Amino acid sequence: MAATQQPRPAWLKNMSAKLASIPMVFTALVIFVGCTLWTVYYSFTNSKLLPNSNFVGLDQYTRLWETNRWLVSVENLVIYGVCSLILSLVLGFLLAALLDQKIRFENTFRSIFLYPFALSFIVTGLVWQWILNPEYGVQHLVRQLGWTSFTFDPLYNADIVIYGILIAGIWQGSGLIMCIMLAGLRGIDSEIWKAARVDGIPTWKTYLWVVIPMMKPVFITALVLIASGIVKVYDLVVAQTSGGPGIASEVPAKYVYDKMFQAQNLGQGFAASTMMLLSVVVILIPWAYLQFGGKRRG
């Protein structure tokens, strides 16, 4: 009689997949988690050019929130973030809805809208720096057409400079959001549209009350991608304004870079980067709880 084969232990199942994931797990734990804890630890010290263990408590954070440059950078990030989030989602969805109508040359239009995303932020920033330059950009072109009093110089106006940077960010990122939304729309069952037409439901109501709720995972994916780009916005600012005029277009990522590599004040840079991490965590934890906690309760 053949011996009964013993079942394999649970930890031995899918061993090839587990072995393949070891490098990624190691990278996440050592580089991401380890470096994050290292940064938080030294944010409570008075590290300058090199890290040291001279603890100063919350002095770096107190100094941070008393610095006008940091406050301006946070205000700019909030303005840029809210506007970028809303406009990218709205514009991306509208473009996707138009392309979803099976128009002619759809592939061409999709390539045109997506092309800016293939450019680096530095290139995008330089291009829009030229376009928004009052001497040879939009303002110069309109004045040559006869409107000599026309003024459009957002990158040189401290009150609206962040919106000039926002224009470049929307131009580059909306194409990717459009493609994500278009993929979501193509996944909607055509029978839903047929039923809506039979019932006489207007198209805009079908989008608003039927299609958009069904695309919740798509919107979450787009939201995460946009949010990650907002928090780390740096290249556009450096390429377009270098933080100017004055400090009017400063953002947290540039503040961190300048403190760590130009001012050689590691403690202050670590404190600022820790606050950036905290802002992400404050948003991420409630979202994760609502997203996954609600499913478990259901």
Automatic annotation (TrEMBL):
It is found in: Cell membrane. Residues 74-289 form the ABC transmembrane type-1 domain. Its main location: membrane. It is a multi-pass membrane protein. GO terms for cellular component: plasma membrane. This is Glucose/mannose transport system permease protein. Keywords: Cell membrane, Membrane, Transmembrane, Transmembrane helix, Transport. GO terms for biological process: transmembrane transport. CDD domains: TM_PBP2 (cd06261). The chain crosses the membrane at residues 21-44, 77-100, 112-131, 160-185, 206-231, 270-290. Belongs to the binding-protein-dependent transport system permease family. Pfam families: BPD_transp_1.
